[in-house]
Amino acid sequence: MPSITREEVAHLARLARIELSDDELDHLAPQLDQIIALVGQVSEVAADDIPPTSHALPITNVMREDVNVPCLTPEQALSGAPAAEDQRFRVPRILEED
Amino acid sequence: MGDLTRKTAVELSELMTSGEASSVEITQAHLDRIGAVDGAVHAFLHVDTEGALAQAAAVDKKRAAGEKLGPLAGVPLALKDVLTQDGVPTTAGSKMLEGWKPPYDATVVQRLKAAGVVILGKTNMDEFAMGSSTENSAYGTTHNPWDLNRIPGGSGGGSSAALAAYEAPLAIGTDTGGSIRQPGAFTGTVGVKPTYGGTSRYGLIALASSLDTPGPCARTTLDAALLHEVIAGHDKMDSTSINQPVPAVVDAARRADVAGLRIGVVKELGGEGYQPGVEARFHEAVELLTKLGAEVVEVSCPHFQYALPAYYLILPSEASSNLAKFDAMRYGLRVGDDGENSAERVMNLTREAGFGAEVKRRIMLGTHALSSGYYDAYYGQAQKVRTLIARDFEKAYEQVDVLVSPATPTTAFAIGDRVNDPIAMYKNDLCTIPSNLAGNAAASFPCGLADEDGMPVGFHVMAPVMRDELLYQVGGALEAALADQWGGVLMSKAPELEVTR
């Protein structure tokens, strides 16, 4: 039995906001299945009493003084925008019609 | 004076100090070389001719005015296209960012500019640094200057190939699982991954934030050390930057002494799956270091065998969330914005069109590993394995000063060989990944050519956190001893590239 089905891969694509074609799904599902079998090897390690590491080095939150520092101008911030209007990012409609 | 593109950074610096060559002349020589060979190598995605010559002229002017300049002032460099440079196209090898010009400099770039280093252009890479061959670049594969039918390694294949093709004496890479060290090994050049947090990630387009580390690439150990010193050090713009002095890497590269140094050969990084020619050169290098006075022992790191599976859970998990920002709203590609489609639909269409196959694979894998019901079994368990790998290192460093292994199980393979087999591709990074998971410093130094194919082999050195200088001590000693043996550096054995105008 595969560790991940084609339907599950299609669901993941929806979660990841990627519009996959049927061809891509056919290709990707068996590949992901193989990769998941590989990464699943981590379960062989007895690690119940081992603390997880999220970061290689011990780190603490970093704070700075609450002072104004130079930042991007509106023109710079919008310079890479796919569409801009009135010094704002113009985006497609965010509400569904009904 | 000879061909300026064959010089090391140190030699170029001396020529400028003595007035025998200007930075403009040196920069122009490298731009000409790029023009002559990059059609075949394809190391560069963008060459900033005007910007580079302007930077060079500015350095020459300062030198003429008697200003005190750093050792790399006026020396040209190739910059991996994953770091932002103000006003210069930055794509990370992806269609998602085609034509994007960032409005700011990465910290590494700011420091290069402040040191007077001349940035020639942006180098090719696997898309968003996901890959080991540059075959995942949306802009075509880079070719290995040692054999144009082979890959140069990845993700930073463009930076390392630029060095090996004499298009630049210095380059910057970034290393998340081996993306500096593996291409270094495959091209017969030096590649150093500093301690995580030793170099700033500000302005580096993130792949996996807990692993990403910018670092120096060069043809010699001393050149790499000089570049390391320029780019390293605390940065308040990166919350994981280490606030400590930069290790004395340049002194160590000059000292190049291993007498009394305790070196541990990692038992688990060799044997089955390792190419005989790679193992032969590796063991000869170990013998050479023993002759130079190092004390060599074998050490065991039993959890390293789980580094690859743990990495391919941690990396995709972090990448899937980092790459969520490519949503077609504020910058980069936007597809399907016809006035009818919703923002969500535009997002889906854009990510489908803008991401390549490997990026999609890893985003999906990360999304899966982080989903409820799987989190503990995958991501949580991988983080525990990460702890065990770090403990293997700690235990080993109680016995020895540095660990060594081959940098890669094989030499550079043929273009197209592994594109349809992601797992074979992932296994390139078996030796390099543990150091990313544990955050310690590591580097690859050239140690000869494999008998089977005549391709370069990399010698991998791993040093404890913030002991980066030990890498240069070993690398420098090895380089000097091998140069004595060969009557020159390894790169002098590389075939001449055909020059086209």
UniProtKB/TrEMBL annotation, chain A:
<comment type="function">
    <text>Allows the formation of correctly charged Asn-tRNA(Asn) or Gln-tRNA(Gln) through the transamidation of misacylated Asp-tRNA(Asn) or Glu-tRNA(Gln) in organisms which lack either or both of asparaginyl-tRNA or glutaminyl-tRNA synthetases. The reaction takes place in the presence of glutamine and ATP through an activated phospho-Asp-tRNA(Asn) or phospho-Glu-tRNA(Gln).</text>
</comment>
<keyword id="KW-0547">Nucleotide-binding</keyword>
<dbReference type="InterPro" id="IPR036113">
    <property type="entry name" value="Asp/Glu-ADT_sf_sub_c"/>
</dbReference>
<comment type="subunit">
    <text>Heterotrimer of A, B and C subunits.</text>
</comment>
<keyword id="KW-0436">Ligase</keyword>
<keyword id="KW-0067">ATP-binding</keyword>
<dbReference type="InterPro" id="IPR003837">
    <property type="entry name" value="GatC"/>
</dbReference>
<keyword id="KW-0648">Protein biosynthesis</keyword>
<protein>
    <recommendedName>
        <fullName>Aspartyl/glutamyl-tRNA(Asn/Gln) amidotransferase subunit C</fullName>
        <ecNumber>6.3.5.-</ecNumber>
    </recommendedName>
</protein>
<comment type="similarity">
    <text>Belongs to the GatC family.</text>
</comment>
<dbReference type="Pfam" id="PF02686">
    <property type="entry name" value="GatC"/>
</dbReference>
From TrEMBL, chain B:
<dbReference type="Pfam" id="PF01425">
    <property type="entry name" value="Amidase"/>
</dbReference>
<keyword id="KW-0547">Nucleotide-binding</keyword>
<dbReference type="InterPro" id="IPR020556">
    <property type="entry name" value="Amidase_CS"/>
</dbReference>
<protein>
    <recommendedName>
        <fullName>Glutamyl-tRNA(Gln) amidotransferase subunit A</fullName>
        <ecNumber>6.3.5.7</ecNumber>
    </recommendedName>
</protein>
<keyword id="KW-0067">ATP-binding</keyword>
<keyword id="KW-0436">Ligase</keyword>
<dbReference type="InterPro" id="IPR036928">
    <property type="entry name" value="AS_sf"/>
</dbReference>
<feature type="domain" description="Amidase">
    <location>
        <begin position="25"/>
        <end position="471"/>
    </location>
</feature>
<comment type="similarity">
    <text>Belongs to the amidase family. GatA subfamily.</text>
</comment>
<feature type="active site" description="Charge relay system">
    <location>
        <position position="155"/>
    </location>
</feature>
<dbReference type="InterPro" id="IPR000120">
    <property type="entry name" value="Amidase"/>
</dbReference>
<feature type="active site" description="Acyl-ester intermediate">
    <location>
        <position position="179"/>
    </location>
</feature>
<comment type="function">
    <text>Allows the formation of correctly charged Gln-tRNA(Gln) through the transamidation of misacylated Glu-tRNA(Gln) in organisms which lack glutaminyl-tRNA synthetase. The reaction takes place in the presence of glutamine and ATP through an activated gamma-phospho-Glu-tRNA(Gln).</text>
</comment>
<feature type="active site" description="Charge relay system">
    <location>
        <position position="80"/>
    </location>
</feature>
<dbReference type="InterPro" id="IPR004412">
    <property type="entry name" value="GatA"/>
</dbReference>
<dbReference type="InterPro" id="IPR023631">
    <property type="entry name" value="Amidase_dom"/>
</dbReference>
<keyword id="KW-0648">Protein biosynthesis</keyword>
<comment type="subunit">
    <text>Heterotrimer of A, B and C subunits.</text>
</comment>
